Amino acid sequence: METLTVVLSIVALIISIIAILWTVYEKIFLKPRSKVTGLISFIKHGDYESKSMLTLNLVNYGPGKIIIESIAAHNLKLFGKLLKRNTYAFIINDYTNEYNCKLPHEIEQYQRLTQFLPINKKKLFDEPMNRFGFKDTIGRFHFIKKSSMKKLIKEYDENVIKLIEQGKEFED
């Protein structure tokens, strides 16, 4: 009788360890990987050529699909989550642009989502933001790398200067 109890305890222990390892594997290794890039570009379609726009691209490297819910920006600070001092912003999708797909949008493995945002302000953000990208329906954020974010802000500022020289007026 005691050997049966010991055997059942060992089997229960093995099943528990397998369940914990599977949960860790599933949460860390089976979540979809993505890469977000940003650049200043324009659309050329036949004779039509758009004004310069901020372009956000997300590629899903899998496994599985990602459902993108919104465009997001953050100002993440050290210990900001604990002190509740992080700034969050959600950018409204430009539904007037026929080249933007509507959000939420489902992205299968190895597919791309591209969003075009108009350049209509002197600064990219009113408040300083250090992260920019997409938020999915599960609540995960897919951000541009920090080094790319710095280049994007610099490129945005240079483009705004060119547009001001051409006579365009901006909102403050």
Question: Major sheet, described briefly?
Answer: 5 strands, antiparallel
Distance between the termini: 80 Å
What's the Cα radius of gyration? 23 Å
Number of domains: 2
**Structural class label:** alpha+beta
Find the count of extended strands (DSSP E, 2+ residues).
Answer: 10
What do the pLDDT scores average to? Answer: 82
Strand content bin: 25-35%
Helices and strands, in order, run as HEEEEEHEEEEEH
Low-confidence stretches: none
- Number of continuous helical runs: 3
Coarse morphology:
elongated
Oligomerization category of the chains in this entry: single chain
Helix content: 25-40%
Describe this entry's structure for a reader.
This protein has 172 residues and is of the alpha+beta class. The protein folds into two domains: 1-30; 32-165, no CATH class. Helices cover 30% and strands 33% of the residues. The chain is built from three helices and ten strands. The protein has helices spanning 2-29, 80-83, 146-165; strands spanning 33-41, 44-45, 48-49, 53-62, 66-75, 87-91, 105-107, 112-118, 131-136, 141-143. The strands form three sheets. Strands 5, 6, 7, 9 and 10 form a five-stranded antiparallel beta sheet that branches. The chain has a three-stranded antiparallel beta sheet with strand order 1-4-8. 16% of the residues are buried. The mean pLDDT is 82.
